[in-house]
Write a structure and sequence with these properties.
- InterPro entries: DUF3991 (IPR025054).
- It comes from Faecalicoccus pleomorphus.
- This is DUF3991 domain-containing protein.
- By secondary structure, this protein is α+β, with helices and mostly antiparallel strands.
- It has 2 domains: 84 residues, Zinc finger, CHC2-typedomain (DNA Primase, Chain A), CATH 3.90.580.10; 198 residues, no CATH class.
- It is 37% helix and 20% strand.
- It has 11 helices and 14 strands.
- It has a 5-stranded antiparallel sheet, covered by helices on one side. A 5-stranded mixed sheet has the order 10-12-11-13-14.
- Helix 2 packs across helix 3, helix 3 packs across helix 4 and helix 7 packs parallel to helix 11.
- The protein is elongated, with a radius of gyration of 22 Å.
- The model has no long low-confidence stretch (mean pLDDT 90).
């Protein structure tokens, strides 16, 4: 006998997220792991966050309850639909995760006429190599904002800007620009390498590239990603153990096999590193390479540059 589900009912079933299905009908399968993050009780690499789920050990993920039942529980599509329908007959689910509304187009902060102040800050104060800074300026990933002369670090979704991090060059101010999507944080990608180097922020990432160049290694030889300050949120359990910037980057770049973490040499950085490794080490080779004698990668670079300058004077 052919099984049939009316179109309106199928639409309703498809709209139910996996997290809402489990919260309503199988809450015993969820372990809270933060403000928005949950782990599956039977699969510790299966995480639910911000309405989505991802099974790190299998490199599979989705959003809907149907996807979850088919991929994780092994149901056929029809069996998954009927299971959800049967549950709904007993009690309609309480919806906690609404599908996102259509977002307004992301607009970057207005650009200044020049990038002189930002280039001076990055190259002369932070000692980042000028060729590297100019490379990202040319790509539209670094520029100087018209107002306040902030350094703006841009992430792209394809060829469209989707994220911007603003950092003052005159004060401690640093923040995401309104409407930014952290899934597309500041990064550099090359298919020539299967390693991904992960940093606390854009300046540490650029500092690492400069250190590569100092050691006669092309700065463009590795994939690099900035977490845009997500580590404090990981430790405070305000972010998932695998922040969305890293989660999304790995989903987009399936050539990555090894992850090297260069987070800050403090309690927050070390704890965030261990949280990330505890989730990803089943799927990727993970290495902790936080700076040992310096608080962060930029401080390591500044010391190396000053040491280089002293040797040149001798």
């Amino acid at each position: 006998m052919t099984r049939y589900i009316p179109k309106d009912k199928l639409k309703e079933i498809r709209s139910l997220s996996a997290i809402d299905y489990l919260k309503n009908y199988h809450p015993d399968l969820l372990i809270r792991n933060g403000r928005t993050d949950y782990i599956h009780v039977d699969h510790d690499s299966l995480h639910f966050s911000n309405g989505k789920w991802y099974w790190w050990s299998k490199r599979k993920g989705g959003t809907s309850a149907i996807d979850y039942l088919v991929t994780v529980e092994g149901y056929t599509f029809m069996d998954a639909c009927e299971t959800i329908m049967d549950a709904m007959k007993i009690a309609m689910p309480v919806i906690t995760h609404e599908r996102p509304k259509k977002a307004k187009p992301f607009v970057l902060p207005p650009k200044d006429e020049t990038n002189d102040d930002v280039i001076h800050y990055l190259c002369d104060e932070r000692m980042i190599d000028k060729e590297i800074v100019n490379y990202f300026v040319a790509k539209g990933q670094i520029y100087q904002s018209k107002y306040y002369k902030n350094a703006v670090f841009v992430g792209f979704n394809g060829n469209k800007p989707a994220y911007a991090f603003k950092r003052s060059i005159n004060s401690p101010m640093k923040q995401d620009h309104a409407g930014s999507n952290k899934a597309f944080s500041f990064s550099f990608t090359t298919i020539q390498s299967d390693e991904l180097h992960v940093f606390e922020g854009a300046i540490d990432m650029l500092s690492y590239m400069t250190l590569l160049k100092i050691n006669d290694i092309p700065f463009y030889s590795h994939n690099c990603l900035s977490l845009s300050g997500a580590t404090a949120g990981i430790v405070a359990k305000e972010e998932a153990d695998v922040p969305i910037a890293l989660w999304s980057y790995l989903k987009r770049n399936d050539h990555i096999k090894k992850i090297i973490l260069h987070l800050d040499n403090d309690d927050t950085g070390k704890r965030a590193t261990q949280s990330i490794i505890s989730i990803l080490d089943e799927t990727y080779k993970c290495v902790d390479e936080h700076p040992t004698y310096f608080k962060d990668i930029n401080e390591k670079l500044v010391f190396a540059k000053m040491d280089q300058q002293r040797k040149e004077k001798c």
